[in-house]
Specification:
This protein has about 425 residues and is α+β, with helices and mostly antiparallel strands. It has helices at about 5-10, 20-25, 150, 170-175, 180-185, 200, 295-305, 330-335, 345-355, 370-385, 415-420, and strands at about 25-30, 45-50, 50-55, 65, 80-85, 85-90, 95, 100-105, 120-125, 125-130, 130-135, 160-165, 205-210, 215-225, 225-235, 240-245, 265-275, 275-285, 405-410. The radius of gyration is 23 Å and the shape is globular.
Length: about 425
């Protein structure tokens, strides 16, 4: 459990809050690159850490992210003209470059120096891995751009998606870090509910290894005389890597010598505001010789409940709180443990169903919640570090550039870290 004070320190992310100050020390995903498909194309509204912003791709193809409102009379820049290396407000014609400089002011006399004194709020951007990243902190504390393995994978080996949740980012993050729910909530196989009574299969033995970027944690189950090893990576403040979930969830396990495409997936979460979160979902093949099958990826996205037909234009799910995620009680009774279709939809249903911000002072955490407990401790330490003027853990990309997750079956008796030593290090 958390005290109400600590809960607020982590969940409140607007300007001037401790949590907001922490997130402003990292590069954050602002939107998908595909949301800005062309130079001089239409601007896109975005909201990050409680700030309303507008993104645009200028004539050079570079992305700018600026204040949503013109500094003249606060007219909305979303309606602006994106032209000739700048975004022009259509109210009085003031035009701004992507770095916030006013480059034209037709409403003032030609010899006026006023435009040299006016800027629009603008943040640095970096485009890589199918994402536009933004840094919203002080210039003097800006770290090097992010450098995850999925960003270095070729476009043929990488997929990036997005969905929006109506709850605080911490609920989404904790849901992903919680390994023990996977074989319970996501049990989609009728007739196999007896597994829920098998402790070794359903409840992992958790180990957490703190690092300079966050932590690595493993969940180990024992199935059919083998060890099912799932090693995850948590990179602060809100990124998670995990191996593809197979085996008990309906697929076939991958062994050390398997020949399937070796894939990693995970999420990067960006707080939109206290009550809304953007989840950027990635998958990539880490074998140079084996690109992803995009048809297979999209099939999996649909099964998970976040394919194109599963989403509304604003990236929210069609199955949502307003329609109870279309839960099917008949399927639930027939053997599917949860009557909600799609692994991702099930997660969102539980996370949004908790309310906009959970009161964590009312929780009762158990032994399999260690990954969540340690994450909260690290985040609170990072909030304190920022308040004291120090760099928070994980802000230097050199700390996490070589991390990788895994999901494998190995023989009983083997030390998994020794047996899978090469698998856990990024190679791209």
């Amino acid at each position: 459990m958390l005290t109400p004070r600590d809960n607020d320190r982590l969940t409140r992310v607007g300007p001037g809050t401790p949590g907001g100050a922490l997130f402003r020390r990292y590069w954050l995903p602002a939107l998908l690159s595909e949301e800005l498909p062309e130079a001089d194309g239409a601007p896109v509204r975005t909201r990050i850490l409680g700030e309303d912003l507008v993104a645009f791709r200028d004539s050079d193809g570079s992305v700018g992210i600026v204040d949503a409102f013109c500094p003249h009379r606060r007219a909305p820049m979303f309606f602006g003209r994106n032209e000739e290396r700048g975004l022009r407000c259509v109210y009085h014609g003031w035009k701004f470059s992507r770095n916030g400089t006013c480059v034209d002011m037709p409403s003032e006399p030609p010899d006026s120096l006023f435009k040299s004194k006016v800027t629009i709020g603008a943040y640095p951007t970096h485009e890589a891995g199918g994402l536009v990243w933004v840094y919203m902190g002080a210039p003097e504390t800006m770290p090097a751009p992010p450098d995850y393995e999925f960003m270095r994978a070729p476009a043929t080996h990488r997929f990036m998606g997005k969905h929006v949740q109506d709850c605080n980012y911490l609920q989404a993050l904790e849901g992903a870090l919680d390994s023990s729910h996977a074989t319970i909530l996501h049990n989609m196989a009728p007739g196999k509910l007896e597994w829920l009574a098998d402790y070794d299969r359903t409840v992992p033995r958790m180990n957490v290894y703190t690092t300079d970027y966050g932590y690595m944690y493993s969940g180990i189950r024992h199935v059919n005389g083998k060890q099912w090893v799932r090693a995850y990576q948590y990179v602060m403040p809100a990124t998670q890597f995990r191996g593809r979930v197979d085996g008990l969830l309906g697929g076939s396990f991958r062994y050390i010598d398997d020949t399937q495409v070796p894939t990693i997936n995970g999420h990067v979460w960006t707080p939109i505001d206290d009550h809304t979160t953007a989840s950027y979902n990635f998958m990539y093949s880490y074998s140079p010789e084996q690109p992803l099958s995009m048809a297979g990826v999209m099939d999996q996205e649909v099964k998970d409940g976040r394919g194109p037909e599963n989403q509304l234009p604003d990236y929210r799910l069609r199955r949502n709180l307003s329609n109870d995620y279309l839960i099917d009680r008949a399927k639930e009774k027939a053997g599917q443990f949860c009557g909600i279709e799609g692994v991702n939809t099930q997660d969102v249903a539980l996370q949004e169903g908790m309310g906009p911000i959970v009161d964590r002072s009312k929780e009762h955490l158990g032994t399999t919640d260690r990954s969540i407990i340690v994450m909260r401790q690290l985040m609170l330490e990072a909030v304190d570090a920022v308040e004291q003027g120090r760099a928070p853990r994980g802000s230097d990309p050199a700390a996490y550039r070589n991390v990788r997750a895994l999901d494998h079956m190995i023989p009983e008796g083997l030390d998994w870290q020794e047996a899978l030593r090469d698998e856990i290090l990024a190679k791209f």
